[in-house]
Amino acid sequence: MYSSVITGAVTGIESTLCLVEVDVSKGMPAFEMVGQLGNEVREARERVKVALKNAKVEIPAIHLTVSISPADLRKEGASYDLPIAVGILVGLGVIPKENVSDTLVIGELGLNGEIKPVKGVLPIVNCAKNSGLRRCIVPKENEKEGAFLCAAAEEKKIEVIGVSDVSEMIAYLKADEEKKPNIIPSAQYVSFHFEGGMEHLPDFSDINGQEAVKRAVEIAAAGFHHILMVGPPGSGKTMIAKRIPTILPDLSLEEGLEVSTIYSVAGMLENDSPIIAKRPFMGPHHTISGQALAGGGRIPKPGIISLAHRGVLFMDELPEFRRSTLEILRQPLEDKKIHIARTQGNFIYPADFMLVAAMNPCPCGYFPNRNKCTCSQSEIKRYLSKISGPILDRIDVTIETPKVDIKQLSATVKNESSADIRERVLAARKRQMKRYKDTKYHFNAELSGGDVNRFCPLGIREQELMEQIFTRMNLSARAYHKMIKVARTIADLEGAKEIGCEHLSEAACYRMSDSKYWN
Questions:
Q1: 165 with 141: CB under 8 angstroms?
Q2: What DSSP character marks residue 284?
């Protein structure tokens, strides 16, 4: 008897529907599997046979042939166990064939018949929803992850059923449609709002002094610009960086789904958090490998820069990273995505993040204070040369973080809180949303070179000033456009309709450190 069951596969972060076909026939007892299968999928034959036996399902001496199509797609992982088991059960007549139509099945089997969680449930359920399927059967631990799409769906509805073992799954699929238990998670599990998380995060009110740095960070957050902080040890660079998420706007529903899809594929969604509702903050150590940063592996998965998508990538002690590792950032900083090429195919991961970097001005950290700095000029040059010109050119804002004065540390003045700064950032973001309505852009930093003149026009005086700045600072075309985009963000923070000379002058100050240290 022939049967077929729909399942899903993940390639990169994209999902594809697959068809598990099972043929049950008389003949020499065998269990054949075809369809360009990885080792984990080939091992499914033993897991499926033992799991069904322990679920009190007797498999007679028959010839089983399993094909997973499309045949030209490499199948990896253990998520095909459950659809193979369902296909066999349908072929044996245990489950009615019509009960698995319009139903996607995914899950890994334990030898005792339990159904274990798998990666990538969110994009697979989303693909099933968009394909018009009616129901998804997933492991119980992945139930809330898939349930988010039940609540988020407006037009196309889909049921997500979580099952914990083979016996429960059989009972569900054998039941008549009107008698099936309603085990879809309630909407309380899929709340997406940013509820009360701010009070547990570090606040900008904890930072005394460094007003210029806080101003630069506010500008970077408002326009989603990349920022580099340069200063001696203990000047507050890391403290400030860790507080940036508290002044960023909440994720939108669309952005949350993008980020959650990446975390689902990476297997990093928690059982109690079926959706990522806060902007990610990733702070890799400087010993990280290029593959861990960019992603990849035998079975490719997202790296740190993709896990920071729509959030903050904080790289502390920037020159301590291997130069080859830093150069990986070139493409994602420009294209907002990263390409991974492997023998089984090409994978594209999103990487639209806000780079926040911090560094000392020299190996000992105290240059240009020659009373404390022990580094030679050649050591300083070698240290700074680890950051290449193309990487510096892609950073919008560079700010010095000087040593904090003792009077500032002991001051009892109430500092501005994250909530106060965030209010101004949100106001600037609203102006950007209005400006870029019906376009592909969301923030000023996203503007391509061709659209800078369209959305950031300069008056005659402003154009003359930019010509002087361009010549004196020896800017590249990219740096020129980035300066205008930063000026546009400064104008948005002030509520100005047009970019003024004062906005351009402040934006130019955020590139002065480049010439001080690297030229």
A1: no
A2: -
- Integer Cα distance of 246 and 255 in angstroms: 17
| Own/partner long-range contacts of 93-96 (Cβ < 8 Å, ≥24 apart) | 93/1, 94/57, 94/170, 94/174, 95/170, 95/173, 95/174, 96/173, 96/174
Specify the long-range contacts of residues 299-305, CB closer than 8 Å, at least 24 apart.
299/38, 299/76, 299/77, 300/12, 300/340, 300/342, 300/347, 301/265, 301/266, 302/13, 302/262, 302/265, 302/266, 302/349, 303/338, 303/349, 305/329, 305/332, 305/338, 305/351, 305/353
Q: Alpha-carbon distance 78 to 366, whole Å? A: 53
Kindly report, residue by residue over 336-357, the tens digit of the pLDDT.
Answer: 999 887 766 788 899 999 999 9
| Nearest alpha-carbon partner for 40 in 9, 70, 77, 73 | 77
Beta bridge partners of 230: 359, 400
423 dihedral zone (left: phi>0; alpha: psi -120 to 50; beta):
alpha
- Segment 441-449 shows an average pLDDT of 91
Q: Tell me, what amino acid is at 4?
A: S
C-alpha 221: how far from chain center: 18
Tokens of residue 359, six digits? 């560094």
Q: Which tokens belong to 458? A: 């300069």
CB contact set of 221 (below 8 Å; sequence gap of 6+):
244, 247, 248, 354, 421, 425
- What contacts 319, CB < 8 A, 6 or more positions away? 359, 360, 383, 384, 386, 387
Q: What is the pTM of this model?
A: 0.89
Tokens at 176, concatenated: 């008549």
Cβ neighbours for 219, distance < 8 A, ≥ 6 positions apart: 225, 397, 486, 489, 490, 493, 510
The end-to-end CA distance of the chain, in Å, is 75
Distance CA 338, CA 308 (A): 12
Q: Is 440 helix (H, G, I), strand (E, B) or coil?
A: coil
Give the tens place of pLDDT for each residue, 16-67. Answer: 999 999 999 988 888 999 999 999 999 999 999 999 999 999 888 899 999 9
* Strands (E) located in 186-273: 227-230
Q: Looking at residue 127, what DSSP letter applies?
A: H
- Phi, psi (rounded to 5 degrees) for 177: -55, -45
Q: What secondary structure letter does DSSP report for 371?
A: T
- Give me the numbers of helices (H) and strands (E) for the chain, helices first please: 22, 18
Whether the Cβ atoms of residue 114 and residue 96 lie closer than 8 Å to each other: no
> Cα–Cα distance between 188 and 275 in angstroms, integer?
12
Q: Tell me the chain's radius of gyration from C-alpha atoms.
A: 28
DSSP state of 233: T
Is 245:201 a contact under the CB 8 Å cutoff? yes
> Which pLDDT value is given to residue 519?
65
